[in-house]
Amino acid sequence: MKKIIGLFVAAALFVLAGCTEPNTLTSSTTGSNEQKIVGEQVEVVSVMDGDTMKVKYDGKVSSVRFLLIDAPEMYHKQLGEQPFGKEAQKRNRDLINNAEVVSLEFDKTGDKEDKYGRLLAYVYVDGKSVQEQLIKEGLVRVGYVYNKQAAHLDDYYKAQDEAKAANRGIWQYPGYVTNRGFVKSKVPGWSAGQNPDKNGSLEKSVSTNKATQTQSKTTSSTNNSSTKSDEACTIKGNINAKGNKNYFLPGTNNYDNVQEEKMFCSEEEAQKAGFKKGS
């Protein structure tokens, strides 16, 4: 009788094991996918510079200001382009445009929007922090810390200490980075469009990240046979708050005031990308 009971128990355990195994696999797969999203997933419209972008969120196109970081300027009316501004912009675009999933995390201890109506968020690509990566590579500083309880602040300062110690990017020039921004005069002999990376630290840090080995989606639509540099492509592409795409030629009335989000080498290239001629 004991043998018969033992057989029944063994059979029952076998059946239960068979029933629970598929659920375990499903849970594991779901968890893996969820790891790529931190907060809320968004669709990226364009990346503007080293610390701002535009996304489709809550049914409309909104600008996003990356929390707790400050990148050198690219389009400031008074300051103009600052050293490492172009490098920060390019790296930010590389990280975001090469990601499968881009998501935003809002800080529960702070405001969701600033006074300009921009979303204030931590930005993630495939579950990894964009802010922390840009800080580590010496492309941005920790800044605009109005909330000492902000999430991730300690991690950002730790990443910044690492970049400082290695003299990466913006930290190559003593006095260039201040707690109020950047001082262009501390980078001797630099002019807009030049690469200020005198010690090659940016190239070294970027080469260690696999994401940069794939061509940015931003540039993938351009003519592969062309070897023109960004400097040779002077047509500015802009996407406004309504999502309208316009391009502007050098010499037109609004050209200097247009905030470039994409650059084109010809009108044909801009039109193929869905942009219309602006006035």
UniProtKB/TrEMBL annotation:
Signal peptide region: 1-17
Domain TNase-like as annotated: residue spans: 38-173
Protein origin, superkingdom: Bacteria
SMART domains: SNc (SM00318)
Pfam family, one: SNase
Spans annotated as Disordered: 188-231
Annotated keywords: Endonuclease, Hydrolase, Nuclease, Signal
Polar residues compositional bias, start-end: 192-206
Biased composition (Low complexity): 207-227
PANTHER family: EBNA2 BINDING PROTEIN P100, SERINE_THREONINE-PROTEIN KINASE 31
Designated name of the protein: Thermonuclease family protein
